Amino acid sequence: MLGKRDKTRRDWIKTDGYGAWTFTIKKPFYATVKVKKDGYEASYGFSVNLSKGNISHDSPVVITLRKKGETTFLVKGESHDAIRVFAPDSQTNSVDVFWTREDGKRQRYLNRDFTVAAEKVSGSNTWTVTYTATGATGGMIFTNELLYVAPSDGYQREVVLNGPPWPTYMYLRSRSPSIYSRVQLRQDTWREPDRGEGFRLITESWVNPYGDRNLEYDSRLETNWHVMDELRREAKAAIQAKRLPPKPDVLRRIKAMNERLENEKAGNVRSTRGH
User: Fold this and answer.
1) Where are the domains of the chain?
2) For residue 118, what is the DSSP state?
3) Are 215 and 150 a contacting pair, CB within 8 Å?
4) 3-state secondary structure of 253
5) Pairwise CA distance, residues 128 & 121, whole Å
6) pTM as predicted
7) Measured distance CA(10)–CA(25) in Å, rounded
């Protein structure tokens, strides 16, 4: 996006064989850069202030792309408040990594993948947050690293964290048969004049329902939400029945769904004309 913030244009520029690219702009306005390459991922875009004049051939802007691994379907749990408490009270809640809203209404937890307890440490700015995995095989690992394959070992049944600061991600092994998840954690603390100091934990999960540790999301599914919805419902039903669903052939499922939708559309047109 080149130009003024209220009047921009979008240009795509192909790099040379070394991955280098250049563009020029007549006036020193901002540019927002997004990079795409098949089989690679750049998880962010960024703005470049061209008016500073510190970008050159010898001092370029560098964007690092991550080579993607084998992809799979992941069930995405919605972002929501897992816990919200004001000192001096403490609170313990359960979290279901498959939690979603259905028909615009809140769906209660059907399973406990882990529990979280929060309590203010008296006389300090610190909160103690205790995470406990449930089930015989449950365990968790905390880190600030965004991993695309869950760790093979090192899981702990219970972890006590004192913060802020806190880690960004939990890698969770839960249920039976075991499934692996990446849970993004956002912990906030604040003070309200009438209620005192508060703590809130917001979680958002990415769940591999097939029993392996792959957490590399297959973005091809975003071309057809019907397939995503089918796979989500199949995975949840299987996990609730304490079994693992069969791993899907994503491209085959998308192709079959597209053909079905086209046939249904053609059938509706013929039916309308015949009527």
Assistant:
1) 1-68, 75-208
2) E
3) yes
4) helix
5) 7
6) 0.78
7) 12
